[in-house]
Amino acid sequence: MSSQAHDGDFFNAPVMTASLPPKEKRTKLLQALLDMDPDISFDDPLENDMILNMGPSHPATHGVLRILLRLDGETIVSAMPELGYLHRGYEKIAENETYHEFITHTDRLDYLQPVHNNVGYILAVEKLLGIEAPPRAQYIRTLLAELARISSHLVGFGVMAMDVGAMTLLLWCFREREKIHDIYDLVIGARFTTSYTRIGGVAQDITDEGLAAIRAFIDQFPERLNEGERLLNRNRIFFDRCRGTGIMTAEQALAWGFTGPNLRGSGVAHDLRRDQPYLVYNDLDFDVITENECDSLSRYYVRLREMKESVKIVLQCMDKIPAGPVHAHEPKKVLPRKERIYTRMEELIHDFMIVNFGVNPPSGEVYHAIESSKGQLGFYIVSRGEGHPWRLKIRSPSFCNLQALPVLLKGHLLSDILAVLGSIDPVMGEADK
Amino acid sequence: MNETLEQVIASLRERFGEAVEDVVEFRGDVVVTVARDSIVTVVEYLRDHPFCPFPLCEDVFGIDQFTRKKRFEVNYHFFSVLKKVRIHLKVRVDEDDASVPSITGVFPGAGWYEREAYDMIGVHFPGHKDLRRMYMTEDFEYHPLRKDFPLMGVPGSIPLPKRG
After folding, report:
1. How far apart are CA A57 and CA A70, in angstroms?
2. Does B82 touch chain A (CB under 8 A)?
């Protein structure tokens, strides 16, 4: 690069790497970024390399994600995400608590949709114990999990639009989300930290008032969603920024371990609700949404259309929900009701044993995965017959989806990060565990 | 056991013989224990399996069995999008030689899973191009999910930032 017009070394410096610390003093993260194969080159007169740090506290990183970027002008040569700023060690905590005690911690994994985490965890524990919740409890779980899916997709939908500049939609989405959390308040008793499931059932039965509130919400929701859709679907700026960015072909998506809406946005019809049905999804009629464009926009469309499918599922659950108990009849595994503990000796003993020593499942290893709104949420439990797990591994979808970020961002402009990151819809509470 | 999965395991036994050490089924989950040296070829074979390919590597993680003779285990989950079945692989290693060949050459998505297993359990993955810690700081000395690491942490192991 010639620069006779300019004096001084500023413009003469071939790359900014000259001002980087010497190799032995660099952090491993920086070195990893520099080692990434930069196989794109641009014949740009203003060629210079620049290392830019994005996050961990940045309004558009969906929490505390840090991305180290290597830029050529405004083009991303390579990107290196860094996790761990929200690492709380839940897998270690799980090894030191009974199966019941850990339910409250699952709320804090993906904090946008706590019911999914409750359900996913409890299904794994029930699989280990070999018990099943009664049909009414299964229907209630399905119903609330689908509401959680709507609530989580609303955030993904609204925040993605906000990141590329459409502020109104976020407020509209949060207005609808607020209604869902009011329903949780009514049915569960908490708005965010739900901890609703119990081994062999749910915390308490859903009342007619709760069902009526869900009905009232679902009746008006599709129209509200259409309003939001109309704001975006003819918005040229939104389309131009999302179309063709963050391309991930079907083969790439599978190789990088994408699941959930991100995988379906690449045209792979993989949905655990259909492929390995759990809860009552076998009895329900819904479509698996796929889009074939493989870019940010198609991932946005998948979320949008999935919300409409969730409305269908909720309506079917409301029609089909049977009467009956919400706790399995397994006295040694399921916590007894409070009024019976105070009046009966046997229940008092069971309560004492379950609370103090935990339910003792047989030795063995089980894995159960559900389709949460971010992707496949799995729990692998290694049991040694004690009241607490020997090892609990959480397979969190956001963690796996974020991994492909360097591939998605490569060659894009700096401002495309927001659209791409919004379309992946990660939640750091889950990615960092 | 699922019929397809039975055929897959039969084909694994036929092809790899002694390398398939053990097959355990519990509550419908099938865990196949594989010899360490043949894990990469087994994974590659499963990915391109003739009638039941497993194109999705769902997870890789380590377990500290602590009291067992071979202390560490590395588990793998694979899912067949075509046949809708899941298979778990397991590799057992000793504490003195805690390393398992990396499968990132077969599944690039296994990179972060292996980094996490290295960070948490301390199993090395030779062949991994970027085996840094996943969650803990770069200069952290311990592996927190080992059973001999206390729940409350080791005092002083993460220095506070210096003032000024």
Report:
1. 19
2. no
CA triple A123-A128-A133, angle to 5 deg? 45
Q: Which ipTM was obtained for this model?
A: 0.91
Question: Alpha-carbon distance B130 to B112, whole Å?
Answer: 9
pLDDT at site B72: 92
pLDDT tens for A313-346 read: 999 999 989 988 888 888 888 888 888 888 889 8
Exposure letters A268-284 (e unless 16+ CB within 10 A, then b): bebbbbebbebbbbeeb
Cα angle B131, B137, B140 (rounded to 5 degrees) comes to 90
Q: Identify the band that residue B69 occupies on the pLDDT scale cut at 50, 70 and 90.
A: confident
B81–A128: do the CB atoms touch at under 8 Å?
no
Q: What is the CA radius of gyration of chain A?
A: 24
Q: Least CB-CB distance to A28: which of B75, B86, B132? A: B132
- Yes or no: say if A187 and A210 are a contact pair by the CB < 8 Å rule: yes
CA atoms of A66 and A386, how far apart (whole Å): 39
Q: Give the whole-number percent of chain B exceeding pLDDT 90.
A: 29
Q: How many CB atoms lie within 10 A of CB B122?
A: 18
| Cross-chain residue pair B84–A276, CB shorter than 8 Å | yes
Let me know the angle formed at the C-alpha of A265 by A144 and A287, rounded to the nearest 5 degrees: 50
User: Residue A286 has what DSSP assignment?
Assistant: -
Best probe of the A interface among B24, B33, B56, B86, by most A CBs < 10 A, is B56
Note whether A27 contacts B110, CB cutoff 8 Å: no
Q: Which domains does chain B have, with CATH numbers?
A: 3-98 (3.30.460.80)
With CA atoms as reference, the chain B residue closest to A396 would be B59
CATH of A90-432, one of 1.10.645.10, 1.10.10.10, 3.40.50.720, 1.10.630.10: 1.10.645.10
Q: At residue A413, what are phi and psi to the nearest 5 degrees?
A: -85, 160
Cβ within 8 Å, pair A366-B26: yes
The Cα A294–Cα A307 span in angstroms is: 19
CB proximity list for A91: less than 8 A, separation 6 or greater: A391, A392, A393, A394, A433, B120, B145
Interchain CB distance below 8 Å, A365 and B29: yes
pTM of the model: 0.88
Burial level of A103, CB count in 10 A (0-12/13-18/19+)?
buried
For the segment A251-263, what is each residue's pLDDT rounded down to a tens digit? Answer: 889 989 899 899 9
